[in-house]
Every structure is written in C-alpha cells, then in structure tokens.
Design a protein that fits this description.
The complex is a heterodimer of chains A (271) and B (445). Chain A is α/β, with parallel strands linked by helices. Chain A is built from eleven helices and ten strands. Chain A has one domain: Rossmann fold (3-Layer(aba) Sandwich), CATH 3.40.50.300. With 445 residues, chain B is mainly α. In chain B, 67% of the residues lie in helices and 5% in strands. The chains are: A alpha/beta (271), B mainly alpha (445). At the A-B interface, α3, β6, α4 and α7 of A face α15 and α16 of B. Chain A: It comes from Ciceribacter selenitireducens ATCC BAA-1503.
Chain lengths: 271, 445
C-alpha cells in the first residue's frame, strides 16, 4: 500500500468511499513521542455504524491510533501527529478545528472506569451542561435518563441518581462512563480496552451494550482479547510494531487472514 | 530413603533456627530503639509544656482591688462645664488622689489597718496604670463625673506576684518597690474581700505596658497585628500560590525554564526567614517607602515566605489527583480549563487548604523577619481598623514573646509564658482544622 503515490491513494480512497460509508478516514498517520516513532503511515478507515476492533500485542500502537481519533494525544507532552485524519471529510488536525468540539463529537471510554467522584446524575449531566445541550432542568433530566437507558444502567441506577458514581460496582461504573460519553450525543465512541478491568459477567454486559450502540453510533474499540474482538466487531484491524498489518472483515480476519503475522497472532504464536 | 529425607529436612532447619533467631533479635532491637526515640521525644515535649504551663498559666489570673471611687467634680471638672477639652486637661495625677481616698475610705469602713503604713504607701499597692484606666473611663463618658462608681483596679505587679509566689515577705524586705507592710495589708484586704484574683481579660485586650507596669501588659496590639498579617498573607498568598501551582502543574510546558522555576521555588522554601526580613527592610521599607512596624510590611514579607509552602503543597495535591479524572473530563469535551476548575481543583482542595493552613501557622509563629522590619517596637496605640490599620504600627505575638523575655521584671517572664500559651493555642487550633479538613475530605475516588 505504501508504494502507491498520493494521487493513487486518493483515488483508491474515493473509490472506497462510494462503496461504503466511512465515518473517519486515517491517511498516512504517523505518531512520534519525542524522538520515538510509535506509528508508521497507518491508513485505516472507520465505517459508519460499525464496530471496528483494533487488536495487536502490547505497545503495537493501537491505543495510540485510537487516541489520535479524538486528539487525546494532544495532552501528552512531546507527542506529534503527522498525516491526515478526517471526520465526515473534515480534517480534525486542521488549525481551525476546535478540539473541544471534536471531542464532543468523538467521545471516549477509558480502560479503567473513571467516573467523576460526584453523583451519578452529575456524572452524566456534566457533558451536556458544558456544551449547553439542555435548556432546562427537565431537558437535562431527560438526557440523563435516556443516556442511562441506552447504557443499560437505568434500572439499576434510577433510585440512586444522587449517590456517588464511585459507589457503583466496576461494571456499573464502566457503563456509567459509557452513558456519560453517550450523553453529549457523539457520532463516534472510542473505547480503549473498556473491559480489561471487569469480570466476565460485567464484560458480557458491556459487550452486549456495544452491540446495541452500533445502531446509533460508530464505535472503535481497542482490545487485548481476540474473543472480544470476534464477538463485538464487524471490522478488525491488526497492528504490529506501529504498523497496520491487516484490516479486514472480522469474520475473515479470524478464519482466513491475509497476513501471516495476523495468523500467528491469532493462533497465539506471539503477543 | 527415610533417613535421607530426615537428614535433608532436619539440617537446613537447624541452620534456619539460628538465622531466624538473629533476625528476630535484630527486629526486637530495632523496635526497642524506636520506642526509646519516641519516649525521648515525648519526654522533651512534656518537659517543655510543663515549664511553659507552670510559668505561664498564672498570666491568665490577675489580682484586682475593688473600690468605690467618687469621681469628684471639684477635682475633675472645676468649672462645672463638663467640657470634654477641659476634662482632658486633667492628667493621671489628678486621678491618683481619688483612688487613694477611695482606698482609705474602704479600709476605714472594713476596719483594716496595718501599723506603720501611711495612706500614700497603701495607695502605691494599686498599679500605676490604674489612674490612666480611670481617666480613660471618664473621658469616654464625662457624665459619670459626680457619681460613685465601683472599679476593679489592677493591683501592682509585686502585690500580684505575692499571690503567684514570685514575691515573699523576705524578698519584700530587700525590694524597693514593695514593703512587707504592704503585703500584710494586701492579706488583710483579701480577707475583707476588697482584693480579689480574677480571670485576666486585660491580657487579651490591653496593649503592651512599660517596664514598671507588668501587671498592665497585654497582648491586644500583638493579637491584632498578627491577625492583620495573617489576613494579608491569606488574601495574597492563597490566590497567588494556587494560580501559580495550577499553571505550573496543568498548563505550563515541561522545559528548562519551568524546571528552573521549580528548583527555585523549592529553594525559596528553604531560605532562612531572616533573609526575607532583610528583603522587606531593603525593598519594602527603604525603597518602596512603606512605614516601619506596619502589618502591611510584615504581611508582605510573610507572604513571600508562605508562597513556596503553598505552591509546593498545592502542586503535590494537584499531582495526587489521578490523571484518569482529567482524561474523563477531556473525553466528554471539556476544555483544559474546565477540566481543571470543575474536576481537578475541587478534588485537590483539601490538600490545598491543609497546605495553606500549615503555611499560615508557620507564618504566625515567625519572629526573625519581623524583628528586622521594626515590629519589635514598643506599641501602645491600637492600630485602626482594616485597611488603614495595615499601615499603623503594631506588634505580633511571637515578637511580643521575644520582647517580654528581654525585660527585667520577673513578672514579664510570666507574661511571656502566657503569650506562648496563647500562640500555641492558636497554632494548635489551626493544625487541628488542617487535620480535620484532611480527614473529612480524604480522597474518595
């Protein structure tokens, strides 16, 4: 892919665009942490209303790529991103783009559940409030309720909205974080190993939730668990040593991958 | 086979027993050392506290002589005009005879007398401060002239000392300021209920007094001076320190320059306090031209001293807020400033408060820099209310302690110890608040 000229890449991309609806397009994305290069010219597209799983061994750059998609890497000192990433055709690294606005459109759920040490209600109401999404208290109540419902937490939390979010169990906390991300009505939700700190039952619930969210949101999920990638995603991208090794339909990826390295990783020969 | 097993298991066990023994012994030794170290510390504290409290608690009690004083118009207002200016012309010498007469009358009424003690010597038992107190009372409300008013007059320092064990009959014989006859009279007055010992409110409200009147010396000006300075320190150093810390911790890029600032702040915290005093003297007083002995200068100097403490404490508590909270806020589209002020700062607040209070407590007890900027001066005038009062001469609690320990009269030693107790109570209260805050808002994430 790298041997193609820019023009050819453009053309190929345009062709692809007509085939499927791409929400985000990453083009020759490279990331440097100071002198160290963490990503090498990654070309990866994210399809709309699809769950895209990023897999690969530790340190392969999958989280780095994920964090490029809503510019969370900006917060890291000495981190530099080259290449182009677009959201609905809009270059998100363009100077005219407001990063706060971007993060409202591209939400994020983190590895460890990180609710604010405030009430469940406040956790969810915070985002809509700072973005001015609710005109009245009733609006806000409505957003909180629907977000909790979409995150499948409403039944468990409706009687304890004023209790601290940190008092929930780990799985509930993570679903609260998902509800919090949903509350600002993003278009894309990035999930950085959202289940790695959860037990199998909580994991199952979150995976089920991801399945349901696909109808309304575009989801990119980083995961260490191959089974999880197979269960929740439709597209899978395999990273290795900062390179995008292969991107394919999940079914094909786990049965008949094109690349030998993907095969080896999935078979557990390294990683 | 069996023998072999026993041998191999048994042998290491024997070696181990000796090693375990040694290990346990060294642990016991270490524990004993720890207990001894703590005991020495506690003992030192107990000795210190005992010496301060035995010497200082008596400062909170004071001997008074209660007399019905006729405020004679013939002496205080000869014209009968009640003109405040005319009354103000009567000095304290005009009031002393009133007290003497009241004492003689009271003694006659109760039938109290001591051979060889004339009325003048008896009146000398009353503090020299008493006529001044009486004059202030009359000037405040001239309409009391002509009335008979009951007063609790301060007894002289030696009479007071007699009841606190500083003065005895034997020492009075050698003392020019008090005679054994006066002490005998004091005992009789005490029996008659005229001379009493009461709680010493004057210790908190009265200003400092001259060397010859230890009984009248109080902490009023020092407490106000210290309060003014703490106010200035709090108002200046808290916002400045917190703003600087937030910028350095959350916004500033990590480079050589910010590293340099960091090192300098750490160094500033370790600079001897007297250096700040010299700075205050050279810059604030000599260059800027601020008045000497003023709380504003003391407050500014102590602010400089407190800033590094607050900055270091604030940065530490900002650092202690987990990065996941910042990520969470940024993840829902909060700006960096919103993330900091809505989430990070509230979580760091208990730590900031604790650091600030401890910094303030340190500033409250600081003496050296205040000596250099002239706060050691003898100040009897109360400073005005804030903010004008910030520019009036004042004293400060620790400096007052230092000041009193320099005086000759042993009554001042008692006052100094009492002032230390007041200072310690303030410090203790501040530290307790800090501990309570820390406990109350312990991290909850």
């Amino acid at each position: 892919m790298n041997v193609l000229t820019d023009a050819a890449v453009e053309k190929a991309l345009e062709q692809k665009m007509t085939e499927v609806d791409h929400k985000m397009i990453g083009q020759d994305v490279s990331v440097y942490y100071g002198e160290k290069r963490a990503l090498f010219d990654v070309n990866l597209n994210v399809r709309k209303n699809t769950v895209t799983a990023l897999i690969g061994p530790s340190g392969c750059g999958k989280s780095t790529f994920l964090r490029c998609l809503n510019r969370m890497n900006d917060t890291i000192d000495g981190c530099r991103v080259t290449g182009k990433i677009t959201l609905d055709g809009l270059d998100i690294y363009d100077p005219s783009i407001d990063v706060v606005e971007l993060r409202a459109r591209v939400g994020m759920v983190f590895q460890k559940p990180n609710p604010f040490p405030k009430s469940i209600y406040e956790n969810i109401a915070y985002g809509p409030r700072i973005h001015g999404l609710a005109r009245s208290k009733a609006d806000l109540d409505q957003i909180v309720e629907s977000s909790l419902q979409k995150a499948g937490l409403w039944n468990e939390a409706k009687d304890r909205l004023q209790e601290s979010g940190t008092g929930l169990s780990g799985g509930q906390q993570q679903r609260l974080c998902i509800a919090r991300a949903i509350a600002v009505s993003p278009e894309v939700i990035l999930m950085d190993e959202p289940c790695s700190a959860l037990d199998p039952i909580a994991t199952a619930k979150v995976e089920e939730l991801i399945h349901e969210l696909r109808t309304n949101f575009t989801i990119v999920i980083v995961t260490h668990s191959m089974q999880q990638a197979a269960r929740v995603s439709q597209r899978t991208a395999m990273f290795h040593l900062g390179l995008l090794v292969e991107e394919n339909d999940t079914d094909k990826m786990f049965t008949n991958p094109d690349d030998q390295r993907t095969q080896d990783y999935i078979m557990g020969r390294f990683g | 086979m069996t023998d072999f097993t026993v041998e191999t298991i048994g042998k290491p066990a024997l070696i181990n027993r000796a090693r375990i023994e040694r290990r346990n012994a060294s642990e016991r030794r270490f524990r004993r050392l720890g207990v001894v170290a703590v005991a020495i510390g506690v003992l030192a504290l107990v000795v210190l506290m005992t010496s301060i409290f035995t010497g200082g608690l008596s400062a909170f009690r004071q001997t008074y002589i209660s007399l019905d004083i006729f405020l004679d118009p013939a002496r205080l207002d000869k014209d009968g005009t009640r003109d405040p200016d005319a009354i103000a012309k009567i000095s304290t010498f005009g009031y002393a005879p009133l007290i003497e007469k009241a004492l003689v009358d009271a003694m006659a009424a109760k039938g109290v007398a001591v051979d060889g003690l004339n009325a003048k010597s008896a009146a000398e038992m009353v503090s020299k401060e008493a006529p001044a107190d009486l004059r202030r009372y009359v000037l405040a409300d001239p309409s009391v002239i002509g009335q008979t008013v009951r007063f609790d007059l301060l007894a002289g320092g030696r009479i007071d000392g007699y009841y606190k064990g500083r003065v005895s009959m034997a020492s009075a014989q050698l003392d020019r300021n008090v005679s054994p006859e006066q002490l005998m009279l004091a005992d009789k007055l005490r029996e008659a209920g005229i001379l009493t010992t009461k709680f010493n409110w004057g210790f908190f409200t009265a200003p400092d007094a001259s060397d010859t009147r230890p009984e009248a010396a109080g902490l009023g000006v020092a407490i106000i001076g210290s309060a003014y300075m703490m106010l200035i320190v709090l108002v200046l150093s808290l916002p400045l320190g917190v703003a600087a810390s937030i910028y350095l911790e959350e916004f500033a890029p990590q480079n050589r320059f910010t590293d340099l600032i960091e090192v300098n702040i750490a160094n500033l915290a370790a600079v001897p306090s007297i250096v700040f005093g010299i700075l205050g003297l050279a810059v604030l007083i000599n260059f800027v031209g601020l008045p000497q002995s003023a709380p504003i200068v003391g407050g500014l100097v102590l602010t400089l001293m407190t800033l590094p403490t607050i900055i270091i404490a604030t940065r530490a508590s900002l650092k202690a807020v987990p990065p996941s909270i910042r990520d969470a806020a940024l993840g829902v589209g909060a700006s960096k400033m919103q993330a900091t002020f809505h989430h990070v700062l509230p979580l760091a607040m208990p730590g900031i408060m604790t650091g600030t209070i401890i910094g303030l407590a340190r500033a409250l007890g600081e003496t050296a820099p205040l000596l250099l900027i002239g706060m050691v001066a003898f100040v009897r005038e109360f400073p005005a209310g804030p903010p004008e009062g910030f520019f009036d001469p004042a004293s400060a609690l620790p400096v007052q302690v230092y000041n009193w320990t320099q005086r000759g009269d042993p009554a001042f030693i008692e006052r100094a110890s009492g002032a230390i107790i007041v200072l310690l109570v303030f410090l203790l209260a501040m530290n307790i608040i800090a501990v309570v805050l820390r406990r109350r808002f312990e991290r909850r994430w």
